[in-house]
């Protein structure tokens, strides 16, 4: 801008200096043609005026440009300030969110099992109980004696018979297997409701698990979802099993990744220890072209081995043995000539390290199940620890404690309701999990036999709360209060709690059906209990049960 002003001043001074009035008429150098000079001066003055206008326009343009630049700078500065404020609020929101999440995790870890300990908490729950007439102590006691005890009296004899036959069958299986190439089968163990004495629904089915191990020189190396490896959210509770040589490094030797010269040998691995070809890995029941144990291959091998074993010892027995369910590969049925039958499950499992946690090759799936997992993902079962926990706690409870009675009545009511309205997302395992949580949360004296009615209502209210929140945590996983006497693996105690109701979030139709079935069961509780209490005498019930076996 100063340059423009200077140029204007220069033009004005030049015009003044060259003005004709500054030259006196006496000057002899003045041209005689005055009119021509005047005309030229006018033209010169006009050109100077145009130049002045042009310069003024340039100055105006420069001022406008500067104003625009200044305005743009202000806008940029404002946007920076606004962005800074936005970034600050975003960061503050993230910090608040993280603090809330940390508090939630701490609260959850410290209190996720503290249910039932406060009567006020139970009073807030149980909205579905309003207006319902719940059976009193006398009716419940009569119902339990006539309907539950009357149908479960011979379970011990059935367990003994099934275990004896299973031991004989597995001994025959070992004799038909190739000890150098086939899997090594160990003794079976009884788990589940039949061995925890709360099974009420017929047909009574014994669940037996059979640990097995690979032939020498191989071993199993397992990985779980909580061992630090990457498992998707839908594979929580699962793990994988890798078949390796006993002296093989889990991480693998560099000789497997680098071409050593023909005259060079690995000091750790000789030619005798080279990996088996893929065909032989499949002989070890691995998934195709991998070292991971295939659950489907294991079940096929086990079914063939059981069939061979039965053919060897069938002449000793006066009954037939067959596989009973297509969707449950380990389901077997003993058929007597009289037409009666006994069902039991014989399922191969793999031990997790040196614990009593097992990878189970086949696990019954409910309507909550999403897509079937791949055959290299094995579900972990804690059934042995669950049985031990119930036995351990039972020693501290009053005589004839009502915890098993509550679970049996709840299982009976739920089974009857599902037979009327169809299956729901709830299973007997969910009901047992509820009992385990309350067993840990409530004092021992609260499970006295005369408190059957109160504890049954607590279980129903706790289940209602879990359904409302879509949260029922696995009893052992993430539970830091597991008794040390059980010797439970610490890795699972430190894991994140596993929500058994997580599939309800994904399957809203199943969730809706489950809630409706639960509420319908509550409405029908008094009618069902009163009906069976009045119309089923004890002697008649015992007679029917003995005929069925």
Automatic annotation (TrEMBL):
Residues 1-15 form the signal peptide. InterPro entries: ITPRIP-like (IPR026250), Mab-21_HhH/H2TH-like (IPR046906), MAB21L/cGLR (IPR024810). Residues 38-82 form a coiled coil. It is found in: Cell membrane; Nucleus outer membrane. Residues 404-477 form the Mab-21-like HhH/H2TH-like domain. GO terms for molecular function: protein kinase inhibitor activity. It is a single-pass type I membrane protein. Belongs to the ITPRIP family. Enhances Ca(2+)-mediated inhibition of inositol 1,4,5-triphosphate receptor (ITPR) Ca(2+) release. This is Inositol 1,4,5-trisphosphate receptor-interacting protein. The lineage of its organism: Eukaryota, Metazoa, Chordata, Craniata, Vertebrata. The gene is Itprip.
